[in-house]
Design brief:
218 residues, mainly alpha, 12 helices, 53% helix, RVT-Znf, RNA-directed DNA polymerase activity, transferase
């Protein structure tokens, strides 16, 4: 009896002669980080957030991944480092008045708020700072933009939060700091670079775009 049981355990029946294979049921093309993310966040984040804010093919992948981590509050801000057991004083590198967290650093800090206000088109627009990046996704739509404005619009969030993060790291590790007016120009340059290289219909030079920023959205 024991020998028969051991034989059954060690010799499972063969269903067919095909080799084993790994199957990912959530994407016909196979496993990808994007399909995993969509599976984990299904129903919690709007589609335009995934397509335009995180997984935009015209934005460098490292910035897309940073946007993903930031939206999940996983970037290594001081509050998250403290949660990992690091004994650090928590003070925002940008304003020196509040504790650093992903939402504060990228959205609510006075330094960040100034940048958001300067990048947003002024005409017929009222900007209220969302409490976190997920809420930013829900409000990230604006009807009535020109064709050029719609094209530019998709690049704004990633360009701003990535630029703020790199500036934060420059202050933290190199002791260097840029004023907001210089940051705004560099962010507009980044947005225009992405816009120009992702559409043949974007005919403006970078200088024209920066000098006539608001008119691009009309």
């Amino acid at each position: 009896m024991l020998a028969e049981m051991l034989h059954k355990i060690t010799s499972p029946p063969i269903i067919n002669q095909q080799e084993d294979s790994i199957i990912w049921p959530h994407d016909k093309k196979g496993f990808s980080v994007k399909s995993m993310y969509e599976f984990l966040t299904a129903g919690s984040i709007p589609n335009h957030y995934l397509k335009s804010f995180i997984w935009n093919p015209h934005i460098p992948p490292k910035i897309c991944f940073f946007s993903w981590e930031a939206s999940l509050n996983k970037i290594l801000t001081l509050d998250n480092l403290k949660k990992r057991g690091h004994q650090l004083p928590n003070c925002c590198y940008m304003c020196s008045n509040h504790e650093e967290s992903p939402s504060h650093l990228l959205l609510q800090c006075p330094y960040a708020r100034t940048i958001w206000f300067e990048i947003m088109p002024l005409s017929s627009w009222c900007w209220t700072t969302p409490r976190d990046l997920l809420h930013l996704a829900y409000c990230w739509s604006r009807p009535g933009l020109s064709t050029t404005g719609k094209h530019i619009w998709q690049f704004i969030p990633a360009a701003i939060i990535w630029s703020i993060w790199t500036e934060r790291n420059a202050r933290a590790f190199e002791g260097k700091a840029k004023p907001t007016n210089r940051m705004v120009i560099e962010i507009k340059y980044m947005i225009c670079f992405w816009a120009k290289h992702s559409s043949t219909d974007f005919h403006y030079t970078t200088a024209q775009s920066i000098l006539n920023w608001d008119s691009l959205f009309l």
